[in-house]
Amino acid sequence: MKNWSLIAVALVAGAMLAPSDGVAQTYKKQTIMAASANAPNSNHGTVFNEFKRIVEEESKGAITVKVFLGGTMGDEVANVKQLRNEELHIASLFTGNLTPSAPIANVLCLPYLFTNMDQAHAVLSDEGFRKTLADHVVKESGTRPLGWMIGGWRSITNSKKPIKTLEDLQGLKIRVSPTAMQLAAFRAFGIEPHPMAWSEVLNALQQGVIDGQENMYLTNEEQKFWEVQKYMTEIHYMLWTGAILVSDSWYKKLDPDTRALVEKAALAAQMREWSSAEQVEANAKKLTIENGMEVTIIDPQEEERWKEKARGIWKDFVTTPELKALSDQALAIIAAMPKK
Ligand code: MLT
Fold it and tell me: In this model, does residue 292 exceed pLDDT 60?
C-alpha cells in the first residue's frame, strides 16, 4: 500500500467515528440533491455512485441521493452558486472551476506545482493542509470541500496539427476553463485562450469555434473527443484535481449523525476515485490511441521552456498571505516526500 493510502485510510477511519458510534442510528427521511456537469462514465460518476451507495445503504433508505449528471443542473461554476443557495447539496467539479468563488483553491492549480500524482496524494492527504484549505474555501465561497479528486495531466488536444513545441501552439484556438490561472498560463505560452463553460466544449469543437482544449485522457474518453480531435500532446503543467463540495449552510443544519454519514460517504467516494485513477487514465490513453488520435509526449527539454513561462505567473497569483502560506505548506509536504 502506498504511503498516501495509509494516511487516507486513517482519514476515512476518523470520519467513520460518528458521535453516536455503537448506537443504532436513525436518520430523518430526506433527499440529497447531487450534481456534476460530467457524464456517468467520468470520475465524477464514480464519486457519486459510491457516495449514493453508502448514504442509502447506511441510512437504510431513509436518505435518498438524487444524482444529476451530464450538466442537467448547469455548468460547474453554476453548481457552486447552487450549493450556496442550497438548490444543490453536493457537487463535484474541477478545482479550476471553484477558483472564481474561492481564489484560495488556486493553490492546487499553480502550474508545475506537482510533478507526479503521488505528490498530489500526499498534499491532499495531509490533515493540516486539508483543514486550512477547507476553512478558507468555506469562508470565500459558502461551500465546503469534504473530499478531493485527483486525475491525470491536463494534456492539449486539437484538430489541426501535432504540437511538439511552443511555436506549434501559436495561432491555435484553445479552450480553457473560465479561470484566471489557466488564462494566464496560456497567455504565458503565447496565445490568447478561449474561456468557455465545460458544458459547451464538445459543441464548440464540433462547430469548429475552437480548435482544441486541454483535459486528461479520461475526459477525452468520456466525451469521445477523438471524433472531433486528431492530436493530443502530453504536457505536465497541471494535474487534474477536483473538489467534492457540499453547501455549507445545509451541512451546518444537518443533525450530527447525518453529517457524519455525509462526511464518511464523501471521503469514501474520494478514496474510490483515488484508487482507480491511475488505471482508468492508462486505459483512457489506450482508447485514445486506438481511436486514431496521434499522441505526442513533449520532449523534457522542450517542456522546460513551457515550465519557465508558466512558473512566471506564480507571482501574480500568490499575492495574499493565505495563498502564500498554503502554497508553502504544499511545497514543504512535497519536499519531505522520499525521493524516488
Ligand atoms: C474543465 O475543463 O472545465 C474540467 O476539467 C471538466 C471536468 O470537470 O472534468
Answer: yes
Atom of ligand 1 nearest to the CA of 240: 5
Sequence-separated contacts (24+) of 199-208 with Cβ below 8 Å = 199/37, 199/71, 199/74, 199/75, 200/75, 201/175, 202/228, 204/175, 205/159, 205/175, 205/229, 208/159
Regarding pTM above 0.85, the answer is yes
* CATH 3.40.190.170 domain span(s) along the chain: 3-150+241-278, 155-238+283-335
pLDDT given at position 20: 47
Q: Which residue has the higher pLDDT, 14 or 336?
A: 336
Closest ligand 1 atom to Cα of 197: 3
CB of 198 closer than 6 angstroms to any ligand 1 atom: yes
* Whether residue 219 has its Cβ less than 6 Å from ligand 1: yes
Q: Phi-psi bin for 296: left (phi > 0), alpha (psi -120 to 50), beta?
A: beta
For residue 203, what pLDDT band results from cuts at 50, 70 and 90?
Answer: very high
The residue to mutate among 198, 210, 238, having the most atoms of ligand 1 within 8 angstroms of its beta carbon, is 198
The reply to whether ligand 1 has any atom less than 6 angstroms from the CB of 213 is no
- CATH superfamily, with its number, for domain 3-150+241-278: Bacterial extracellular solute-binding protein, family 7 (3.40.190.170)
- pLDDT top residue among 175 and 5: 175
* pLDDT reported for residue 25: 80
